[in-house]
Design goal:
The chain has 288 residues and is α/β, with parallel strands linked by helices. It has two domains: 212 residues, 3-Layer(aba) Sandwich (Rossmann fold), CATH 3.40.50; 48 residues. Helix content is 34%, strand content 26%. The strands form three sheets. It has a six-stranded mixed beta sheet with strand order 6-7-8-3-9-10, sandwiched between helices. Helix 4 runs antiparallel to helix 5 and helix 5 runs parallel beside helix 6.
């Protein structure tokens, strides 16, 4: 499958932080969830990818084009949405549409108006009177109306109520039904990523810990709550990480199905993205 993003050995060094040797490929038509603790390097990676900050790399390509030499051509097909609108709040959607029609050569005003109707956004109201959810929907209406092939979302769903978040996630999933569209989404709300991600990328202390298909994480890994006797009976190669509780152990395992075949009555819970991340951040566990 063709890659929409190709990164090889990307590095960014600050006085007190280092993003080290990030190498990953993101396939076209996929939704990739980017997770990590505060200060782990998610925003640094996104800003490097967009050319907002200077970083070093052996390769940094988007749509098969080199960011250093083809930045203008690349950025016309990218939409970036943060956790709040970056437009002047005195603007109305009507004014924004007219303005962007002069900025983007492929701006589709008819489509923009259709999205405003679909999202129930008033054409002439100033966006300072919009709710947070309405502002986010406006950002998506803008992104879709200039034909963006890649959406980069940095905490775009944070602060939204569950109903608004669910609607935004539905919009994202529908967007990627067209395999020419791809999404990179950074979020602390890992339950959102559980709903829409095809792949999960985990950054920890400036290092890429893993990039894995979401279904592999859900199907191959499991969480067991057990005592010392059962822990000792497990194959050590299947044990990814252990947390000592007051009277038992919480164990992150791989090869869930194989373990279940041996211990038929053992309850093995499929882990959420948040649970897997906690094993990393608290214990420094590495997946095998």
């Amino acid at each position: 499958m063709e890659n929409v993003i190709e990164i090889k050995n990307l590095n960014k060094i600050y006085d007190d932080f280092r993003l080290e040797n990030i190498t990953l490929n993101i396939s076209r038509g996929s939704v990739v969830g980017l997770i990590g603790e505060n200060g782990a390097g998610k925003s640094t990676l996104i800003r490097s990818l967009l050319g907002v900050i200077k970083s070093s790399s052996d390769e940094l390509k988007i749509f098969g084009l080199d960011l250093k030499t083809d930045e203008i051509n690349i950025k016309k097909d990218i939409a970036v949405i943060f956790d709040q609108t970056h437009y002047d709040e005195e603007f109305s959607p009507k004014f924004i549409g007219k303005m962007l029609s002069k900025v983007y050569s492929n701006w589709d005003q008819k489509m923009f108006l259709e999205y405003l109707t679909q999202f129930q956004l008033p054409l002439k109201k100033k966006i300072k009177k919009f709710s947070r959810g309405m502002k986010m929907k406006l950002e998506f209406a803008i992104a879709f109306s200039h034909g963006a092939k890649l959406l980069v979302l940095d905490e775009a769903t944070s602060g939204l109520d569950p109903i608004a978040r669910d609607e935004i996630l539905s919009i994202i999933r529908k967007y990627t039904e067209d395999e020419n569209h791809s999404v990179l989404i950074s979020s602390h709300i890992t339950s959102d990523l559980d709903k829409i991600s095809d792949y999960i990328v985990y950054i920890h202390n400036g290092k890429l810990m893993f990039m894995k298909p979401y279904e592999e994480l859900r199907e191959d890994y499991g969480i067991i709550h057990a005592g010392k006797e059962l822990l000792d009976s497990l194959d050590h190669d299947d044990v990814v990480g252990i947390k000592k509780e007051s009277y038992s152990y919480t164990i992150l395992v791989k090869n869930r199905t194989s373990i279940q075949n041996v211990f038929e009555d053992l309850e093995i819970i499929r882990p959420t993205i948040e649970e897997m991340m906690l094993f990393y951040s608290e214990k420094g566990v590495e997946l095998c």
